[in-house]
What does this fold into?
Amino acid sequence: MKGSILDFSIQTNTGIISGDDQNRYNFTGAEWHGQRPPTRGDRVDFDVDQTGSAIQIFTALTPSNPIQNISEQLDKISDQNKAEEQFNMIDWFVKCLKNYAVFDGRSRRKEFWYFMLASMILGIIVQIIDAILGTDKLLNGLLNLALLVPSLAVGARRLHDVERSGWWQLLILTVIGIIPLIIWWASDTKRENNQWGQPAK
It folds into this structure.
Protein backbone atom coordinates (compact mmCIF):
# COMPACT_ATOMS: atom_id res chain seq x y z
CA MET A 1 0.00 0.00 0.00
CA LYS A 2 1.13 3.57 -0.59
CA GLY A 3 0.77 6.62 1.61
CA SER A 4 2.49 9.66 3.07
CA ILE A 5 4.16 10.25 6.41
CA LEU A 6 1.77 12.42 8.39
CA ASP A 7 3.88 12.72 11.52
CA PHE A 8 6.92 11.16 13.18
CA SER A 9 8.33 11.77 16.66
CA ILE A 10 12.00 10.96 17.25
CA GLN A 11 11.39 11.11 21.02
CA THR A 12 8.78 8.35 21.06
CA ASN A 13 10.05 6.66 17.88
CA THR A 14 6.47 6.46 16.59
CA GLY A 15 4.60 8.02 13.73
CA ILE A 16 1.46 8.07 11.60
CA ILE A 17 1.01 7.33 7.91
CA SER A 18 -1.89 8.71 5.90
CA GLY A 19 -2.66 5.91 3.46
CA ASP A 20 -3.90 6.50 -0.08
CA ASP A 21 -7.03 4.63 1.05
CA GLN A 22 -7.83 7.62 3.33
CA ASN A 23 -7.06 5.64 6.51
CA ARG A 24 -4.35 6.42 9.06
CA TYR A 25 -1.84 3.86 10.26
CA ASN A 26 0.39 4.03 13.34
CA PHE A 27 3.95 2.74 13.05
CA THR A 28 7.12 2.41 15.07
CA GLY A 29 10.61 3.41 14.02
CA ALA A 30 11.63 -0.25 14.01
CA GLU A 31 9.48 -0.76 10.89
CA TRP A 32 11.15 2.10 9.00
CA HIS A 33 13.64 0.97 6.33
CA GLY A 34 14.62 4.33 4.82
CA GLN A 35 18.08 5.85 4.48
CA ARG A 36 17.15 8.77 6.77
CA PRO A 37 14.50 9.31 9.46
CA PRO A 38 10.94 9.62 8.15
CA THR A 39 9.84 13.19 7.43
CA ARG A 40 6.34 14.63 7.12
CA GLY A 41 5.20 14.37 3.50
CA ASP A 42 7.50 11.48 2.52
CA ARG A 43 5.83 9.05 0.13
CA VAL A 44 6.10 5.46 1.39
CA ASP A 45 5.23 1.85 0.55
CA PHE A 46 4.10 -0.27 3.49
CA ASP A 47 2.15 -3.32 4.63
CA VAL A 48 -0.49 -3.50 7.35
CA ASP A 49 -0.45 -6.09 10.14
CA GLN A 50 -3.46 -7.72 11.82
CA THR A 51 -3.73 -4.91 14.39
CA GLY A 52 -3.97 -2.25 11.68
CA SER A 53 -0.47 -0.88 12.19
CA ALA A 54 1.93 -0.12 9.34
CA ILE A 55 4.89 -2.49 8.95
CA GLN A 56 7.77 -2.93 6.49
CA ILE A 57 7.84 0.75 5.55
CA PHE A 58 10.05 1.80 2.63
CA THR A 59 10.47 5.07 0.78
CA ALA A 60 8.21 4.87 -2.26
CA LEU A 61 9.91 4.63 -5.63
CA THR A 62 8.15 7.09 -7.88
CA PRO A 63 9.11 8.31 -11.32
CA SER A 64 10.65 11.77 -11.24
CA ASN A 65 7.93 14.27 -12.11
CA PRO A 66 9.30 17.84 -11.95
CA ILE A 67 5.85 19.43 -11.76
CA GLN A 68 4.78 17.15 -8.90
CA ASN A 69 8.08 17.75 -7.12
CA ILE A 70 7.58 21.52 -7.36
CA SER A 71 4.03 21.15 -6.07
CA GLU A 72 5.26 19.09 -3.10
CA GLN A 73 7.90 21.71 -2.29
CA LEU A 74 5.23 24.43 -2.42
CA ASP A 75 3.10 22.36 -0.01
CA LYS A 76 5.98 22.50 2.48
CA ILE A 77 6.06 26.31 2.23
CA SER A 78 2.33 26.89 2.63
CA ASP A 79 -0.62 24.97 4.08
CA GLN A 80 -3.31 25.41 1.43
CA ASN A 81 -5.85 23.40 3.45
CA LYS A 82 -6.58 26.18 5.94
CA ALA A 83 -9.38 28.72 5.43
CA GLU A 84 -8.54 31.58 3.06
CA GLU A 85 -9.31 34.06 5.86
CA GLN A 86 -6.15 32.76 7.57
CA PHE A 87 -3.96 33.08 4.44
CA ASN A 88 -0.94 35.38 4.56
CA MET A 89 0.98 36.82 1.60
CA ILE A 90 3.04 33.64 1.14
CA ASP A 91 -0.11 31.47 1.13
CA TRP A 92 -1.74 33.61 -1.58
CA PHE A 93 1.48 33.60 -3.62
CA VAL A 94 1.75 29.80 -3.39
CA LYS A 95 -1.92 29.42 -4.34
CA CYS A 96 -1.27 31.36 -7.55
CA LEU A 97 1.83 29.30 -8.32
CA LYS A 98 -0.13 26.07 -7.81
CA ASN A 99 -2.73 27.42 -10.26
CA TYR A 100 0.13 28.27 -12.62
CA ALA A 101 -1.79 28.24 -15.91
CA VAL A 102 -5.41 28.15 -14.72
CA PHE A 103 -7.23 30.87 -16.63
CA ASP A 104 -10.72 29.63 -15.69
CA GLY A 105 -12.59 30.56 -12.54
CA ARG A 106 -12.46 33.65 -10.36
CA SER A 107 -9.97 35.20 -7.91
CA ARG A 108 -10.58 37.65 -5.11
CA ARG A 109 -8.66 40.89 -4.62
CA LYS A 110 -6.42 39.48 -1.88
CA GLU A 111 -5.19 36.68 -4.13
CA PHE A 112 -4.32 39.05 -6.99
CA TRP A 113 -2.74 41.88 -4.99
CA TYR A 114 -0.78 39.66 -2.58
CA PHE A 115 0.61 37.77 -5.57
CA MET A 116 1.66 41.05 -7.19
CA LEU A 117 3.20 42.31 -3.93
CA ALA A 118 5.17 39.07 -3.40
CA SER A 119 6.33 39.19 -7.04
CA MET A 120 7.58 42.76 -6.61
CA ILE A 121 9.44 41.88 -3.40
CA LEU A 122 11.02 38.86 -5.11
CA GLY A 123 11.95 41.08 -8.05
CA ILE A 124 13.74 43.57 -5.79
CA ILE A 125 15.63 40.78 -4.01
CA VAL A 126 16.68 39.22 -7.32
CA GLN A 127 17.82 42.60 -8.67
CA ILE A 128 20.02 43.02 -5.61
CA ILE A 129 21.46 39.53 -6.14
CA ASP A 130 22.06 40.37 -9.82
CA ALA A 131 23.95 43.53 -8.79
CA ILE A 132 26.06 41.63 -6.25
CA LEU A 133 26.89 38.80 -8.67
CA GLY A 134 27.27 41.11 -11.67
CA THR A 135 24.93 38.92 -13.77
CA ASP A 136 23.45 41.95 -15.58
CA LYS A 137 19.73 41.29 -14.89
CA LEU A 138 19.96 37.61 -15.88
CA LEU A 139 18.27 36.29 -12.73
CA ASN A 140 15.66 39.05 -12.84
CA GLY A 141 14.82 38.12 -16.43
CA LEU A 142 14.44 34.46 -15.48
CA LEU A 143 12.17 35.40 -12.56
CA ASN A 144 9.99 37.58 -14.81
CA LEU A 145 9.76 34.75 -17.33
CA ALA A 146 8.79 32.25 -14.61
CA LEU A 147 6.09 34.55 -13.19
CA LEU A 148 4.64 35.67 -16.54
CA VAL A 149 2.07 32.88 -16.96
CA PRO A 150 0.80 32.85 -13.33
CA SER A 151 0.56 36.67 -13.47
CA LEU A 152 -1.58 36.52 -16.60
CA ALA A 153 -3.65 33.67 -15.12
CA VAL A 154 -4.43 35.41 -11.82
CA GLY A 155 -5.08 38.66 -13.71
CA ALA A 156 -7.63 36.90 -15.91
CA ARG A 157 -9.32 35.23 -12.92
CA ARG A 158 -9.49 38.62 -11.13
CA LEU A 159 -11.17 40.18 -14.20
CA HIS A 160 -13.61 37.26 -14.31
CA ASP A 161 -14.54 38.07 -10.71
CA VAL A 162 -15.68 41.55 -11.78
CA GLU A 163 -17.48 40.19 -14.87
CA ARG A 164 -14.82 41.09 -17.40
CA SER A 165 -13.08 38.82 -19.89
CA GLY A 166 -9.45 37.98 -19.25
CA TRP A 167 -8.72 39.24 -22.77
CA TRP A 168 -9.04 42.78 -21.41
CA GLN A 169 -5.47 42.32 -20.18
CA LEU A 170 -4.39 43.11 -23.74
CA LEU A 171 -5.05 46.74 -22.79
CA ILE A 172 -1.71 46.62 -20.99
CA LEU A 173 -0.08 46.81 -24.44
CA THR A 174 -1.31 50.40 -24.64
CA VAL A 175 0.00 53.12 -22.36
CA ILE A 176 -3.39 54.32 -21.12
CA GLY A 177 -4.88 50.81 -20.87
CA ILE A 178 -3.28 50.11 -17.49
CA ILE A 179 -5.67 52.60 -15.81
CA PRO A 180 -8.94 50.70 -16.40
CA LEU A 181 -7.16 47.43 -15.64
CA ILE A 182 -6.01 48.70 -12.22
CA ILE A 183 -9.55 49.93 -11.50
CA TRP A 184 -11.06 46.55 -12.42
CA TRP A 185 -8.41 44.58 -10.50
CA ALA A 186 -9.11 46.76 -7.45
CA SER A 187 -12.91 46.41 -7.71
CA ASP A 188 -14.81 44.29 -5.20
CA THR A 189 -16.14 40.85 -6.06
CA LYS A 190 -19.42 40.76 -7.97
CA ARG A 191 -21.73 38.76 -5.71
CA GLU A 192 -23.61 37.02 -8.52
CA ASN A 193 -22.63 33.80 -10.26
CA ASN A 194 -21.40 34.37 -13.79
CA GLN A 195 -20.05 32.33 -16.70
CA TRP A 196 -16.75 31.86 -14.85
CA GLY A 197 -18.30 30.40 -11.70
CA GLN A 198 -19.33 31.41 -8.20
CA PRO A 199 -18.08 34.57 -6.45
CA ALA A 200 -14.49 34.22 -5.24
CA LYS A 201 -15.48 35.00 -1.66
The radius of gyration is 22 Å. Strands lie at 2-9, 14-19, 24-28, 43-48, 54-59. The chain has five helices and five strands.
